[in-house]
Write a structure and sequence with these properties.
The chain is an alpha+beta fold and 372 residues long. 43% of the residues lie in helices and 14% in strands. It is built from 15 helices and nine strands. Strand 8 and strand 9 (101-102) form a beta hairpin. Helix 7 (221-233) packs antiparallel against helix 8 and helix 10 (271-283) runs parallel beside helix 12 (306-318). The chain starts with a strand and ends with a helix.
C-alpha cells in the first residue's frame, strides 16, 4: 500500500491508480553531490482512462547520502508537459528529517509546495552550498558557520532538517525530466490530440500545441480554423501562440489568416488582443502588402494605453506610412490626458507631411506647449 501526498495532505491510497498499463520509459540524469557523477532514473509514460499521457519517476529521497540519512524511494508524478503534480511513497515508508524524525503532515505540505514552485531558490544553489559557509572569511576572521541550508530554513524555503531531501527531490522534479517528458508527449500526440490541447483554454497546453503544429507544418484548413477560433474567442492571454501559428502558416501556405486579423471584429474590440497583434506585426519579418497599414483606421482613436499608441505609430514610421486619416487620428491624441501619449503623437506628426489645416493646428499646439 502506498502513501500518497497530494496538495500537502498525507493519506493512504485506498484504491489502485486509474492509470493504465505502463508505456515507454526514458533515462533521466541528475548531477550528484561531491563529484560523484550523474545519477540516473527512469521516467515512465503511462496513459489515463482518457488516453492522455501521464508520467512518474521513482527516485531516492536523498541523492548520494551517507548513513546519517535514511533513504527511501519517492515516486514523483508529472503532467503531460513535465510539470510536477504530486509525490507518493510506494513502499509505504516514511520520509524523515535530521535525527530520523518522521515528516509531519505540515512537513509534507511544505515539501509539496516547494516541489510545485519551479522558481524556487533551490534552482541556483549547488550541492556544496548546502554545507559550505555563506561567505568565505577574510584573514583573521572566524568562519560564520552559516550554511546554505540554514539560510534557506530561515527564509522558510525548505523543510527544517530535511535540506538534502528537499534539494534532491526539487532538482529531480525540475531538471532534465521536463524536456524529456515534453518530448515524450510530443511523440505520443497526433494532430487531434494537439487540437484538443489547443481547445483546452490552458495557456501551457495551448502554447505547446501551437508550437507542435508549427513544427509539424500542420497548416490544413481544419487546423487553421481551430486556431482562428482560438484567436477570436479565447482569452487575450492565449492569442500569442495563435498569432505565432497563423504568421508561420501564412509564410508557408500564402494564406493570409494572420494579416486578416487586422479586420477581425473580435480582435479589434479587445485592447489586449490589439496590442499582441501589433507586437506580432512588429516582430514579423514578412513584408507587409502595400497599403496594409493605411487601413488601420480607428486603431489610434481606440488605443487604451501609451504602449498601444507607441506600437502603432512605430509601425507606421517603420513602413513610412503617411495618410491624412492617420494624421487626423494622431492629431486628436494631442488632447489626451496622458502626457506620454501627447508627446509621442507630437513626435510622429512633426515628421509627417500634413495638410495645410493639420499643419496650422500643429503650429498652434506648439505655441501653446513650447516645452515639447
Amino acid at each position: 500500500m502506498s502513501v500518497v501526498v497530494l496538495f500537502g495532505v498525507l493519506s493512504v491510497a485506498a484504491a489502485p491508480s486509474p492509470i493504465a498499463a505502463k508505456g515507454i520509459s526514458r533515462r533521466v540524469n541528475l548531477e550528484g553531490p561531491r563529484n560523484t557523477g550523474a545519477i540516473s532514473g527512469n521516467v515512465v509514460q503511462v496513459f489515463d482512462a482518457n488516453g492522455d499521457p501521464r508520467y512518474f519517476m521513482d527516485v531516492a529521497s536523498v541523492a548520494g547520502a551517507d548513513t546519517k540519512f535514511k533513504v527511501v524511494t519517492v515516486r514523483l508524478h508529472f503532467d503531460p508537459l513535465g510539470n510536477y503534480v504530486r509525490y507518493e511513497l510506494p513502499s509505504g515508508d516514511r520520509l524523515t528529517k535530521r535525527g530520523h524524525q518522521p515528516f509531519s503532515p505540515e512537513d509534507h505540505k511544505k515539501l509539496h509546495e516547494l516541489l510545485s514552485d519551479r522558481h524556487s531558490q533551490l534552482k541556483t544553489i549547488k550541492w556544496d552550498q548546502l554545507t559550505m559557509p555563506k561567505s568565505s572569511p577574510a584573514p583573521g576572521e572566524k568562519v560564520d558557520g552559516i550554511t546554505g541550508a540554514t539560510v534557506l530554513t530561515r527564509q522558510g524555503v525548505i523543510v527544517v532538517g530535511a535540506a538534502y531531501t528537499c534539494y534532491t527531490l526539487w532538482h529531480w522534479s525540475h531538471g532534465e525530466v521536463v524536456s524529456v517528458i515534453r518530448d515524450m508527449t510530443s511523440s505520443a500526440s497526433d494532430q487531434q490530440d494537439l487540437i484538443r490541447y489547443l481547445r483546452s483554454g490552458q495557456y501551457p497546453y495551448v502554447a505547446f500545441a501551437a508550437d507542435q503544429l508549427q513544427t509539424r507544418k500542420l497548416f490544413d484548413a481544419a487546423t487553421m480554423d481551430a486556431v482562428v477560433h482560438l484567436m477570436r474567442h479565447g482569452s487575450a492571454k492565449l492569442i500569442g501562440p495563435a498569432l505565432s501559428y497563423l504568421a508561420k502558416a501564412g509564410r508557408e501556405t500564402g494564406t493570409d489568416c494572420f494579416l486578416r486579423c487586422r479586420d477581425d471584429a473580435t480582435l479589434v474590440a479587445d485592447s489586449d488582443k490589439r496590442v499582441q497583434f501589433l507586437e506580432a506585426l512588429r516582430d514579423s519579418t514578412r513584408e507587409l502588402p502595400s497599403g496594409y497599414l493605411d487601413r488601420f483606421n480607428g486603431w489610434l482613436a481606440r488605443a487604451d494605453s501609451y504602449y498601444e499608441v507607441h506600437l502603432l505609430l512605430s509601425l507606421l514610421e517603420r513602413e513610412k506610412v503617411s495618410s491624412a486619416e492617420v494624421a487626423g487620428e494622431a492629431m486628436s491624441l494631442l488632447e489626451s490626458k496622458d502626457p506620454l501619449i501627447v508627446r509621442r503623437s507630437y513626435r510622429y506628426l512633426k515628421a509627417q507631411k500634413l495638410s495645410q489645416s493639420q499643419q496650422q493646428k500643429l503650429e498652434k499646439f506648439e505655441q501653446q506647449h513650447p516645452d515639447l
